[in-house]
Design a protein that fits this description.
This protein is of the alpha/beta class. It is built from 18 helices and 13 strands.
Length: 419
């Protein structure tokens, strides 16, 4: 009891008293005595890791005595490693998740419901907050977001006599790619009109889904039922196949490299490419364009983001909540985005008028955030995504038409939903 402790303090040696007082005072409101939080993240690329460590250092400087232990993950096997950590009772306190992973982790009961200090503020757009919500409850807070956009090599277009300012539709992009192929394709430089992503897990769907959305299609309905074979989806895939017949089909990594080397006229890529161009080929002349229209409909881009969640069984909730609130604050997320360069922006729109977000190549990326869409919040989204990618790859080999490939994928999706 408090009384018995007081009596012992009155007669105890001084060193013992000081030690006991330190022990009594080191706890917090939730009973946790740890000053170290474990943070699982995916910023393992050296330059990105350095920028993240700067923000972690800012947090620890503002919270003397606190340490952050980082756990580096990769996008190739990071999800499996996270599940293994949960199953092995080695739960990280704070976890970075991709926007399309939150539903799966939340549904399985592995994440803490976020309230109080980590509730998503109203300055975060509804569309960006949605991926962190499952069953009406928030389980992850948006951190930084980025969109895909259309990159155009202006030197190639000029050499082919193509006026970039006149192109605002995918039909126009296709015609321009054909012109580039006919005028420059036979040269030693091996110039090609457009890059088209081929069979490339977790990347291919991001190139076709914007076309699906632009035409009014979608892969799931409002009730979460799969709708892969909708007519709009079929038309979108058929157009993608037309692009493939007029461009270089390859992996995202290789096509990024080919655009960087100045060999591709058009290429749909992400914010990292801006940074790579600045670092590896700053003389490259290029423009970043908003998503073109298709069949006269306003172009819709795909937006992805990084979200921060807290492990439900974390034994250090107060510090974990404080760390999440710190990293996702408008000023910190903006500083982090500026350090990363190349298209990332804070999910919290409170700093939306900063020049970094409204000038240069970043302006097109930022404008895409207002018209873009996130992938559906669905606990089986990754399975639906995989089936969609399999259908695209099958149609690209000409072993099935777009209608046949998507029809088969729909049947498989329905079968999975019934299990």
């Amino acid at each position: 009891t408090v009384v018995s402790v007081a009596r012992r303090l009155a007669t105890a040696p001084l060193l013992f008293v000081l030690a006991l007082l330190a022990f009594i005072g080191c706890g917090d409101d939730d009973g946790s005595s740890s000053t170290t939080i474990r943070f699982a993240h995916f910023w393992s690329e050296p330059s990105q890791k350095a920028i993240l460590e700067e923000r972690i250092a800012a947090f620890t400087a503002a919270n003397p005595g606190v340490e952050v232990e980082t756990i580096e993950l990769s996008w190739n096997d990071g999800k499996q490693k996270l599940f293994a950590m949960f199953d092995g009772n080695q739960v990280p306190d704070v976890i970075e998740l991709g926007s399309d992973w939150v539903a799966q982790f939340a549904e399985s009961g592995r994440l803490l419901e976020m309230t109080g200090t980590v509730a998503t503020p109203s300055s975060v757009p509804v569309g960006l907050a949605a991926p962190g919500i499952w069953d009406g409850k928030t389980f992850a807070r948006p951190w930084v977001v980025a969109s895909r956009a259309l990159f155009a090599n202006t030197d190639i277009l000029d050499a082919a006599g193509v006026d970039l300012t006149s192109i605002d539709s995918w039909e126009g992009v296709l015609a321009a790619a054909e012109t580039i192929n006919s005028k420059l394709g036979g040269t030693d430089a091996k110039i090609e009109g457009i890059g088209v992503n081929g069979d490339d897990a977790n990347r291919l769907f991001k190139k076709v889904l914007p076309l699906v959305w632009t035409l009014g299609g979608g892969l799931v309905d409002a009730e979460g039922n799969p709708t892969l074979a909708r007519p709009e989806n079929i038309r979108a895939l058929e157009f993608y196949l037309t692009l493939a017949r007029n461009g270089r089909v390859d992996s995202q990594r290789e096509l990024d490299q080919q655009f960087l080397a100045g060999r591709i006229g058009f290429w749909l890529s992400g914010p990292w490419l801006i940074d790579r161009i600045d670092n590896d080929n700053p003389e490259l002349q290029f423009s970043v364009l908003p998503m073109p229209t298709l069949e006269g409909r306003v172009g819709v881009g795909i937006v992805g983001g990084e979200y921060l969640a807290i492990g439900r069984d974390s034994d250090n909730l107060p510090l974990a909540k404080k760390f999440v609130a710190f990293l996702t604050s408008p000023s910190e997320a903006l500083t982090f985005s500026k350090g990363l360069k190349g298209g990332f922006a804070p999910a919290d729109g409170a700093s939306g008028d900063d020049p970094y977000l409204t000038e240069g190549h970043q302006a097109a990326m930022t404008s895409q955030l207002s018209t873009g869409r996130m992938t559906p919040v669905h606990p089986q989204w990754l399975e639906i995504q995989e089936l969609f990618e399999e259908a695209i790859a099958l149609a690209m080999t000409a072993d099935a038409t777009a209608e046949e490939a998507l029809g088969a994928a729909q049947e498989k999706a329905l079968e999975k939903m019934r299990k």
